Write a sequence for this structure.
């Protein structure tokens, strides 16, 4: 059972956006992750975060994890092999920038970037580690390579399991010196990806219908059980948000006891988070490559710099619900005028002025001309 972090501990935590550290890598690329030691909210929320970057010809060896995840392709295009639990055949999925994949428990995956690729294949992983070995950090189990599972078994056990002579079994286990990520030999032919295998497995957030589209403000695509049913098994929702230069994202909070885990894809902007007793617990500038977490029920707002800002978030529930504290759909528009007037201890005239604003703005607010 995961131990819940106390209110005082959460209020005292450093919520500042952080970049990941390199965990391992080689000629084929590198794997980076965020540590709870650097970003304590990962441990408090039992959320893992990591990033895979494969150079041309790079192969992330077949792996399974102790955590359910959402994968999001940040850059490039390539291939993802997926073997679902009890499946007799793998899915060989072509992936490209903007693709989101839900990866439930027990899934074995491999990732490959073609030799002729013009750019690195970069994939973000965000997931729930509450059932994992280390709260706040993924534990990955490689099936092959220098750190592969079968290097730990005796030759007798491997030979018996695979019905091979012992010398053949020993050779098969030891011939791959790479660990985690390798570079495929030139000329070696990898499986051809199949577009049909994308069905039910992938949603491209850059091509999907917009859930919110505010002129000069911003756009949102929400990943949920309706457009990608596998997220129900993962237990996470996600969204891709893009706001224009100097636009504001309304102050709001997740009203279903969920954490918001946000990775800045590109651009930059200012972020403020307010917790209990009106205490501002974070005021910072976030930029591309950074990750931060908003605690449960805390209110967050963002204002983009002149480059705009784009972020990918997971929410620790498959169908998240948000309450906004500004704009046409805010709680203020629903509250009775007399209650609002008394709550702010203000005049009827000020209440009417306040209520008359943001009647046609929802979630995102474009800068004033």
């Amino acid at each position: 059972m995961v131990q819940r972090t106390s209110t005082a501990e959460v209020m005292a935590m450093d919520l500042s956006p952080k970049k990941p550290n390199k965990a391992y890598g080689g000629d084929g690329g590198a794997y980076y992750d965020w540590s709870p030691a650097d970003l304590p909210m990962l441990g408090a929320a039992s959320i893992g975060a990591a990033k895979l970057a494969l150079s041309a010809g790079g192969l992330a060896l077949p792996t399974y994890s102790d955590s359910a995840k959402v994968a999001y392709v940040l850059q490039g295009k390539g291939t993802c092999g997926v073997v679902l639990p009890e499946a007799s055949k793998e899915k060989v999925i072509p992936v490209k920038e903007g693709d989101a994949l839900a990866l439930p428990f027990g899934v074995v995956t491999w990732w490959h970037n073609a030799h002729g690729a013009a750019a690195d294949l970069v994939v973000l992983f965000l997931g729930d580690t509450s059932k994992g070995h280390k709260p706040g950090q993924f534990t990955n189990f490689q099936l092959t390579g220098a750190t592969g599972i079968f290097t730990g078994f005796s030759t007798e056990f491997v030979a018996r399991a695979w019905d091979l002579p012992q010398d053949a079994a020993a050779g098969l286990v030891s011939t791959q010196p790479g660990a985690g990520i390798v570079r495929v030999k030139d000329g070696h032919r990898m499986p051809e990806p199949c577009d049909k295998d994308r069905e039910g497995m992938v949603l491209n957030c850059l091509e999907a219908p917009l859930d919110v589209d505010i002129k000069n403000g911003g756009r949102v695509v929400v990943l949920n059980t309706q457009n990608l049913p596998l997220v129900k098994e993962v237990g996470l929702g996600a969204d891709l948000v893009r706001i224009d230069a100097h636009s504001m994202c309304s102050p709001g909070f997740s009203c279903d006891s969920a954490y918001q885990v946000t990775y800045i894809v590109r651009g930059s902007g200012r972020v403020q988070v307010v917790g209990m007793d009106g205490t501002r617990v974070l005021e910072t500038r976030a930029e591309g490559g950074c990750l931060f977490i908003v605690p449960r029920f805390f209110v967050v707002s963002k204002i983009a710099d002149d480059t705009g800002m784009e972020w990918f978030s997971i929410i620790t529930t498959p169908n998240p619900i948000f309450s906004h504290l500004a704009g046409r759909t805010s709680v203020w528009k629903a509250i009775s005028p007399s209650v609002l007037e008394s709550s702010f201890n203000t005049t009827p005239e000020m209440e009417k002025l306040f209520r008359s604003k943001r009647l046609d703005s929802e979630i995102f607010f474009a800068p004033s001309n």
Remarks:
- The radius of gyration is 23 Å.
- Residues 18 and 39 are 7 Å apart (CA to CA).
- The mean pLDDT is 93.
- The helical segments are 7-12, 41-45, 155-162, 166-174, 231-234, 331-334, 337-344, 348-356.
